[in-house]
């Protein structure tokens, strides 16, 4: 075989090896979601790739047969093509036996380098960057190869299947997409600029609904504006003027005996038409939805949907009212700062290293603001005030402080045993620096 023929043969073998390398990596790296979208658009090749991913045994068997056979042939052809020429040149300086050995090593090094670069590294990088496009192009030829080598493929596949069964190894990859997978994709999209930071945070908030309890979004007991059933028309009018809300609980004697709720729209309608307002009017007071304080926000949304309500009374295990929650409260948790609120912000950033935080702020919001992963004993509390109580093992007083995670949490104000304001300061330069809010 002449040198030109040998070079042509080596080039063909490198091209074939590159084809099998691309076929291997592209199938493994192709994203099923993208392939399904292409299949829905009518690309039949996508269906073939998806079937290969579900049962990849025969596919990879052909790849390995092709790569190993080509590697052996490449070594044989390359050694025969280049070694004699290198040996003749090296004989000018070395003995014949030494020159033959060095000529073989030089030929081996060149052939190996050519295969590594052109049959392995370049094709695999290309397949990783354009995995779906490459997979669609190679699936047809690979199906032909699987048909041609079917007897050999059957032999190796059955042997491999036997080994997998013997050691009880998995034969199919888990294609289930979890919430962590989706969050990881959205975070990657936000980092690359393909998705806005606010949109990514909203998606993360949606998944938090499953873990956050209703207590993290409710209006606390001491902030509830409510009516007593015996309140006069004048008291009702003064209350709705002083504390304008969309919904008011109606109680019998005290807040722990809720008999229903009244909608502000109904009150305003009667006030504007100069009709008397009586909270004993059964047409005015609606039956209230009552839910336990241990429900998650997702479960509360389900309750709203089932009873077609957007307001609920929250009670604890002793049937005492601990708060109220509306559909808007839950949606505010999802939307975060993407929607405007008339309420005072619970977290106010004073400067690059300090924050003023309300004691009833949910722990998840505190973690997000401070870029922390967790706080100790998180299962024992739901708010920043609860965190301080657990850490101090008593009811906090003004100037009490807790240092944790590179931050100092100092109590600034306490009202009737309830923590109103907490100053949080970053005291450790190595503590995670929260990112500035983006518009």
UniProtKB/TrEMBL annotation:
Q: What is its main location?
A: membrane
What is an example of a Pfam family matching this protein?
A: CNNM
Q: Which spans are transmembrane here?
A: 92-118
Q: What cellular component terms from Gene Ontology apply here?
A: plasma membrane
Any single GO molecular-function term of the entry would be: flavin adenine dinucleotide binding
Q: Which residues form the CBS domain?
A: 284-341
Q: Where in the cell is it found?
A: Cell inner membrane
Per UniProt, the keywords (alphabetical) are: CBS domain, Cell inner membrane, Cell membrane, Membrane, Repeat, Transmembrane, Transmembrane helix, Transport
For this protein, the record's SUPFAM superfamilies field holds: CBS-domain pair (SSF54631), FAD-binding/transporter-associated domain-like (SSF56176)
Membrane topology designation: Multi-pass membrane protein
CNNM transmembrane domain location: 1-199
Similarity section: Belongs to the UPF0053 family. PaeA subfamily.
Q: What does this protein do?
A: Involved in cadaverine and putrescine tolerance in stationary phase. May facilitate the efflux of both cadaverine and putrescine from the cytoplasm, reducing potentially toxic levels under certain stress conditions.
For this entry, the protein name equals Polyamine export protein
Organism expressing this protein natively:
Comamonas antarctica
């Amino acid at each position: 075989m002449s040198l030109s023929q040998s070079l042509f043969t080596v080039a063909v073998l490198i091209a074939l090896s590159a084809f099998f390398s691309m076929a291997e990596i592209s199938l493994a790296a192709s994203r099923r979601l993208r392939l399904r979208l292409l299949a829905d658009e009518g690309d039949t090749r996508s269906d073939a790739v998806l079937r290969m991913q579900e049962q990849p045994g025969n596919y990879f068997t052909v790849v390995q047969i092709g790569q190993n056979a080509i590697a052996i042939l490449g070594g044989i052809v390359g050694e025969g093509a280049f070694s004699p020429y290198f040996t003749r040149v090296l004989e000018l300086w070395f003995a014949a036996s030494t020159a033959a050995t060095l000529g073989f090593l030089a030929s081996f090094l060149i052939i190996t380098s050519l295969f590594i670069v052109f049959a392995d590294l370049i094709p695999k990088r290309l397949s990783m960057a354009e995995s779906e496009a490459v997979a669609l192009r190679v699936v047809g030829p690979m199906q032909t190869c699987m048909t041609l080598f079917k007897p050999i493929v059957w032999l190796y596949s059955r042997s491999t299947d036997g080994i997998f069964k013997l050691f009880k190894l998995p034969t199919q990859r888990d294609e289930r997409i979890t919430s962590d997978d989706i969050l990881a994709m959205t975070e990657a999209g936000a980092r690359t600029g393909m998705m806005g930071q606010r949109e990514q945070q909203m998606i993360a908030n949606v998944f938090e609904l499953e873990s956050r309890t209703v207590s993290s979004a409710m209006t606390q007991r001491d902030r509830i504006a409510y009516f007593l059933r015996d309140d006069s028309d004048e008291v009702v009018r003064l209350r709705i003027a002083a504390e304008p809300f969309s919904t008011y609980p109606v109680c019998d004697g005290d807040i722990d005996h809720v008999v229903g709720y009244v909608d502000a729209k109904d009150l305003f309608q009667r006030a504007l038409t100069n009709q008397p307002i009586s909270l004993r009017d059964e047409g005015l007071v609606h039956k209230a939805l009552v839910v336990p304080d241990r429900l998650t926000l997702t479960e509360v949304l389900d309750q709203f949907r089932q009873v077609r309500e957007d307001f609920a009374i929250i009670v604890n295990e002793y049937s005492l009212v601990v708060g109220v929650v509306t559909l808007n409260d839950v949606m505010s948790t999802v939307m975060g700062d993407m929607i405007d609120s008339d309420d005072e912000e619970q977290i106010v950033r004073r400067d690059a290293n300090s924050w003023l935080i309300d004691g009833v702020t949910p722990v998840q919001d505190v973690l997000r603001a401070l870029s922390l992963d967790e706080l100790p004993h998180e299962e024992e509390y739901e708010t920043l005030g609860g965190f301080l109580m657990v850490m101090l093992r008593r009811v906090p007083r003004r100037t009490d402080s807790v240092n944790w995670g590179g931050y100092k949490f100092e109590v600034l104000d306490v009202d009737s045993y309830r923590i109103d304001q907490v100053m949080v300061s970053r005291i450790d330069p190595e503590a995670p620096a929260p990112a500035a809010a983006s518009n």
